[in-house]
Write a structure and sequence with these properties.
It contains three helices and no strands. It is mainly α and 96 residues long.
């Protein structure tokens, strides 16, 4: 606030009272917009890091589900197809 008053006093003599007030108000508006923009950028950066961690968590869960579904599918295939057990035993060298 002190800087604003100093600026007002300096410019009042050269520009006049109305012009000085208008100029200082314009400076204040620009300053407020800059502060909001900086806050918005910080918010965006925080959201970005939060989204990255959320995506990593979802990827991990999805990978675990895919592995589980693959194992269940393989087990189901072995249980419903008797020739698959024979083929598996031959491939692994097991004797039945």
């Amino acid at each position: 606030m002190t800087k604003t008053m100093e600026l007002y006093i300096l410019l009042k003599d050269k520009l006049g009272e109305q012009e000085t007030k208008a100029l200082i108000e314009a400076f204040d508006e620009v300053t407020e917009q800059a502060k909001k923009e900086v806050a918005t950028k910080a918010d965006i950066a925080a959201l970005k890091s939060e989204l990255k961690s959320d995506i990593l968590l979802v990827e991990t869960r999805l990978e675990a589900k895919i592995k589980l579904y693959f194992m269940l599918l393989a087990l189901l295939f072995l249980m419903t197809n008797p020739k698959a057990i024979e083929l598996l035993s031959k491939l692994l060298g097991m004797v039945k």
